[in-house]
Give the backbone structure.
Amino acid sequence: MISVQSVYETVKNLANKDQKGFVTPEMFNSFAKSAQLKIYQEVFQEVIDGKKLRRAQIDAARNLSLVERTKTDLSVFISKVAPQKVAGAFVKPEDLYSVVSMTTRGLAKKPVHIIYDDDKIQHILSSTLSAPTTSFPVGLVSTDIEVFPSTIGKIDLKYYRTPSTPMYQVFLTSNGTETVEIFNSAASIDFELPKKYEPELVDEIANMIGVNIKEPVIEKYGSQEDNEA
């Protein structure tokens, strides 16, 4: 994981030049979540792009594969739960970002075919040829998770979760003449992305802060680093 203190200090040193006090912990925290999520989404896009390369048979093999490298980066975000069934539907985890797989629970576990289109599930349910069975169940993922046939009462869900919200917290102390901010490690939350994404986080947050405070030098730094990446 990436130290929230390390990222904050880097961004602060970049933006607070001449002791202008541009970046406060509150300002940093307001952008940290969005910056992490943006990079997280980009990593997902790399998986999609890598799969396209693989289908075209031009993806590298083994540890050089784009798909395998990005899957490794995302592996820390995989969670497994047995969601509760309420009023005929399974409750989606609050931190669900993307479903990996679903299986029925019991002695004979069966993979659940996942669908996101309500029109498509209605077509399947009305078909005499492709109607779901306990051997070939189908799941609709929307505001909740519906699994058909409805007699299925338990499932196991594997999914990618949304990263926890990073937080840089301080406590105040006095050195006799002024109030000083001291990093509060116990109350702070690190970024969950792998360490190699730290430069991108700094660039992204610097760009966001530069736009917010209308500081062209900082905004230019973030944009410049993005172009060089």
